[in-house]
Amino acid sequence: MKNIQKILVSLLVSFAISTSAFAGELTVTGTAKATYNTVSGQNDNGADTMGITNELTFGANGELDNGWTWKYATELDPDTTSGGGNALNDDTQMVVTTPYGAFAVCASECGLSAALEFDQGAYTLVSDTGYAEGKTEPANISSYTNMQYHTPAGLFPNELQVKLAYAPGSNSSVLSSNSSNATDVATVTDSSMVRVTAVPVEGALIRVSYMESSAGAGIQTNEQKAHSGAIAATYNYGAFAFGLGRSHNAPVLADGSSDRIESTENTNYSVGYNVNDNLSVSYTNEESQNKNTTAGTVTEELDVSSVQAAYTMGGMTVAIAASDYENVGYEKGIDVSEIILAVTMAF
User: Fold this and answer.
1) What CATH number has the domain bearing residue 203?
2) pTM of the prediction?
3) Number of domains making up the chain
4) Any long-range contacts for 85-88 (C-beta under 8 Å, 24+ apart)?
């Protein structure tokens, strides 16, 4: 994975060519969505919740005089949910696309993990909603400020595309240009990631990703480096859509560490069906199991299942998701049921 660093740095230098740019277009995008959420069972705080989207993306794009294109985007989010929160810029990216591929610089953005791309939910991936079930997912390069190179579309047979990423540190702050001496987190330093996608047959799509991180300063890691991988396969057949996913996440383990989670294995599947042009339904199941460094320590298998339906009329979509969580946080007997009602307006 160290070769990824050398490749990306070389590409950054080669792309730094002086050229004129035409005036770009400015955009503001977002999602107009309101939700009503009710939770029952253990870990129930006793109050239903209403929410409305509160994020906007400001973007710009343009074209250079040599035909290359570029785009820039940054998000405006509240820094907390209490009292509405203060305005905060985050999730920023700048991408230059050329005939030789695309080069990107991203902060808390541009994730390459395939772990969650099995989902065919009519409304949403249920383990990625507001309820914190505690499921461990593979690491993603978007956790850190990173640089990327993507091969051009159509370069290889079967629509195969390769994306390489390197994070020269584990800082996750959205720093201004010319910033220096950023502070890494304690556990890891630099990270490298690769992602490959391909279409083996019509209607099918395979996505594979792998990430590896170096240990943080002062950590002796002869036992285990941080690494993770995922594979997701989807297939569309008429009105049906199928998805399968398998992922592995292993955190850094220092020499002589006490009993800790050695790895987490996730197995997921999802089925969607378009009843007609307006109505779609789905079923999704996710299973997650921890493996500990000491066999005597046992954690329970976390299981998430969700039945969803979405109905679109004009520019409005009404959706419902009924979900069950078993062994929340990998603790036996912590079971929760959740129902989400959502109304989304297209604009």
Assistant:
1) 2.40.160.10
2) 0.85
3) 1
4) 85/54
